[in-house]
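[recover] target loaded
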């Protein structure tokens, strides 16, 4: 059954934009998950700035990326350690450029746990009401549908005795 109440799970955190192995700069970011868009996670970089940057990709990709390398193309995510700290690296690619971002693994994992409690894996389609909508479409046909289903043209074949 469709969840009529939209829940938003958000977390603000500071990511690091990796410029080189020796240099990175802090980037304020917001992770957001909405139950009305249950397959996606949204990340806004440069929160509070005049030109925030928004990325949206599959929640499943981030969940997997916390544990092992995954993704290809525009979004690739993998766990690693830097100076003894567990981090998650996100490589994002767009026509405007590429970015390598470092996120604290514990904070990302805690936020993901909250999203998984809001909408457990495998129940995402229930949030969208796809089954309810499909059932409505396939419900008993209306009178107008019954008329449409009947052959509106008489047969061209005449029966014996007919003119």
């Amino acid at each position: 059954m469709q969840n009529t109440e939209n829940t938003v799970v958000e977390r603000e955190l500071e990511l690091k934009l990796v410029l080189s192995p020796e240099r990175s700069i802090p980037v304020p970011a917001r992770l957001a998950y909405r139950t009305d868009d249950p397959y996606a996670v949204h990340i806004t970089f440069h929160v509070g700035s005049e030109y925030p940057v928004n990325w949206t990709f599959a929640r499943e990709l981030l969940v997997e990326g916390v544990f092992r390398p995954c993704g290809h193309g525009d979004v690739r995510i993998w766990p690693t350690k830097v100076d003894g700290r567990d981090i998650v690296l996100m490589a994002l690619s767009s026509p405007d450029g590429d970015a390598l971002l470092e996120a604290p693994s514990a904070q990302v994992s805690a936020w993901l746990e909250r999203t998984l409690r809001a909408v457990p894996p495998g129940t995402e389609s229930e949030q969208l009401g796809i089954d309810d909508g499909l059932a409505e479409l396939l419900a008993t046909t209306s009178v107008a549908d019954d008329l449409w289903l009947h052959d509106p043209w008489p047969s061209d074949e005449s029966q014996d005795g007919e003119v």
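[recover] notes: The chain is about 25% helix and 40% strand.
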